Predict the 3D structure of the following.
Amino acid sequence: MKTLLIRLFLDNWQRKLLSLILSMIIWMVVSHSMTVTKVIPNVPVRVTNLAPNKTIEGMLVTGHLNKRVSLSIVGHKKGLENLSSKDLEVVIDAKNKSHEWITRISHKNLVSLNPDFDPVKTVSRVTPIEMTVRQSKLITEKIPIHVTQPIGEAPKGYQYLDIWPYHLSIQVTGPEEAVKKLKNRGIKLTFNLNEITQEQLDELQAPQQGDYSDEVSFKVPESWKKVSLANLSDTPIEIDDPLAKALRIDFSRRDLLPIGFSIPVTIFFPPKYSNTINPETYSLATSQFISKKNGIKLFNEPLYAQGVSHLFLETVKDMIQMVIIAAPKSERDSLLWSAQFMYPHELENRYIAKVMAESSEEIFDIQPHLQEDYLRNRFRGYMSRFRLYTPQNNKLSLKIELQANSISITPQNYSK
């Protein structure tokens, strides 16, 4: 057996070695010359040599289009077997081109992004693809940003009050069609309250001191002051409006605020019902909840407010009333009512004067000419969402009925 193996390997060993070497050479030649077809999806497309005042809709600052192509490439097997869209790109030359043209993508448009991939040596043919390229005028415009009400929930122990400013702008450059469409539509900027922690708010100092220290302002971080515009940039764009420096979200450190005063209750008599329903035929009935003092009907049980500040309540306490709208039973079984503020413009001025007098400039950190605008918006926000609550944290619900010659009020969800 041993002799047989020796003869097998050593007899005519020169010829056998030569055959082995020739076989390896033939295998290598065949392997390297073997041609295959491979489809590469999502290949990036870049446009070069555009005129300075021109662009293409969907083109990023790098010159890449937001549209990618799939290429069917014929070439050497070894060079293509590990090839992916990360290794190459299609480059289209726009020099001296018209407003719109059709380009034919071939192997001449391939550019390697990988030093180990040489299109000239590896690729023999690319199945041609026709692509329409349309140039647009490059313009720069100021786009309005609408700061919407935040989503999410305020941290535990805090009540969301307001956000300011409500409107910003951003300067963008891009294709005329896309930029004008964006300008007409505007951009929405929405923050998420879930991204604000209780610890962050606990560390904040209130702009008012003493009895009015229940309000705190969370300054929006710089990293939040960005907008995503997929047609113009592959990364979020920073808001360049100087007013963005003042972006803040206001919170109250209290949930329910006690209203420490009785609210007057009045009746509005619409003229169209005045033949039968008027002050001479109907009056507001007194009850456990409605008392009469100096000829004024008052809601005399404790009530609470939510979503406003203590300073706001102090400002409006003498200028607020509950108004009932009288109507026949054929119109409504239960009459409508609302809380109304008397002479709101004067209340607004009074609120601003109090805040400015009791605030620290360092804490406020808003340019003087913006402070009044900020405070007016805050006060108007308080008025628009002011609601009355019961001690059980329920919105006050009243059943108001037309009786024989009076109007009665019965709270539906009030208990002490």
Remarks:
- The two ends are 109 Å apart (CA to CA).
- The longest helix spans residues 13-33.
